[in-house]
Design a protein that fits this description.
13 helices; alpha/beta; Rossmann fold; 3 domains; homodimer; DNA-binding; six-stranded mixed beta sheet; about 15% strand
Amino acid sequence: MKRANREDVARLAGVSTAVVSYVINNGPRPVAEATRSRVIAAMDELRYRPNASARALKLARTNVIGLLMWDITNPYFSEMAKYMQERAHERGYGLMIGNTGQDGIEETAELHNMLGREVDGIALSGVRRPETLTAIARSGVNVISMDWHLAAPDIPSVGIDDYGATREAVEHLLWHGHTEVGLIAGIDDLTLREKSWSDTMSARCTPERLKELTAYGDFTRQGGYQAAIDLLKRPNPPKAIFVSSDVQAFGVVRAVQHLGLNIPNDVAIISLDGTDASAFTYPSLTVIRLPLDEIAKHVVDKLTSHGADERMHTTFPHTLIPRESCGCVSPEHAGREDVRAFSHSQS
Amino acid sequence: MKRANREDVARLAGVSTAVVSYVINNGPRPVAEATRSRVIAAMDELRYRPNASARALKLARTNVIGLLMWDITNPYFSEMAKYMQERAHERGYGLMIGNTGQDGIEETAELHNMLGREVDGIALSGVRRPETLTAIARSGVNVISMDWHLAAPDIPSVGIDDYGATREAVEHLLWHGHTEVGLIAGIDDLTLREKSWSDTMSARCTPERLKELTAYGDFTRQGGYQAAIDLLKRPNPPKAIFVSSDVQAFGVVRAVQHLGLNIPNDVAIISLDGTDASAFTYPSLTVIRLPLDEIAKHVVDKLTSHGADERMHTTFPHTLIPRESCGCVSPEHAGREDVRAFSHSQS
DNA sequence: TTGTAAGCGTTATCAT
DNA sequence: ATGATAACGCTTACAA
């Protein structure tokens, strides 16, 4: 049975195709109530569904947006994707995903893939290759970056105060009495977090020591695991570690335990992201939580509202959530951990 | 600067629009080498990109497929999504995602969302509402189910041998010397796994005891956590548990530890899924691993090849991966766990 | 080997 | 309040 189109509906309802359009779109012209209901009845009877491709062709708009990221398997991204999908749905949009891989090797390919599908906008997270940026610029597509407000001030962006959040995290560990805080960072990104750590620590360490306190891994559990093993097997390892992302921290927790060390007594850990999953390691992770839901909403809104929001960059607030891995909450307090924001001034 | 269309390219290259099409699509008619290069040059110069909407309208095909699932945040789904996206990309397709929520409340809405976007096919995972099935049937869209081969034999499906896998998992725990194995299951799904557990255990338990050994939670870390707390706080709790999904098992591990119990000595755990994340709990999870990558490929291929593959149902093999949570591998063997398939006959 | 032109299902402008 | 119709950019049968 052939699918009905607008003309079939019009014929059955005894109206013109234009009227069918007016009914479907509630405009741009008014339709008499009687006519409207005849049209609706006809649509029902024929199981009519408007053809999105035709509509997209006519309107030069697909009502689909894309999310380009490293790896949907990373809880940070999957939570972001979930919130974005929900918001997109609310606003009548669909969400396409593209994984660029840890090394960003698929970055350009995925970008072109999305551009070729005529998405109305693209959110970029963890995207960095210069080729990608120039490709974006010349494509003229609607874009928002979730990373580099700094590198490309002409491109709209969102983010958090990476520098401040990192300092806060490091200082929280110092507040616990640690004199040195190690760093586990991504291979070649999030340099602002690395810089903030280094600035905060350089008051207490020599530059050589800073190097000894740093290990790199990619943004996977495995990457965090290996970086932690590397770091902790060195001669004089730190007893507290700032991990630049939750996924990595999952690997770090596992590594510390594998080495037979105790968290937080032998090694205290804090990480930055605050995904839902971070509450379910054991011990649970003390984190700086990013408001992923808020960020996702903002990103989708920005991409789907034709430039109504003028701001080029929006910064979202972060929150320290003290849990077990730093020593704030003891593992004995099963299920009683306090998930409210932590404030140093109160202590 | 207006975007170039096929006519602009044709004009610049001094050919007809048809020839431009022939060049782009490598057919259906041959093009002289010289002409082809002129066309290509013109496309470059104008930064021409074919309009996917127009193409979709003409061909009645969007080259986009959809994945409808509960929650992309569940590692099982996010890993599946990743593999599917990769395969789709290889085959020139895009992947749209839709989250239906734990209760499936958004199921119909998301389905219509995808249908309205004219996706060429939809993969359903964790979808079960009867309304959804009838909506699918009448829409005539290309579909593949990743759950219910049984309930709707007229719809193509993939899966694993849930019954056999569960039996294997339970028997593995029994082989470890346990006499009773508890069950943590999803609220109203995966009944085949529940049935298999019940069949396997009923030789050793009374029906009343079977009830005492069962707890339900939704497919989240939190759901597993609460179900485990519930189960383990009962008078005579099991010392071994079969968990019907990895996500739930993450919560179970956390719950057991919170109760101050040791894994695997006080409580042994095995779960079914075998996501990458399952190797990073502490202790690591012994799992029945599903070949997500293979399944994803198959699903995408089936959805993107116009009915070339005749099979209505394909079953994929599963593999028992012995790790720490059952006692096969001791936590001391840091990084030395054997990830090959486990065979009881060898022991 | 290349050109012409019809048609895919919409939307929206111009009539009526 | 409604109808007729020209576009939107592409593919492809048919002509040359």
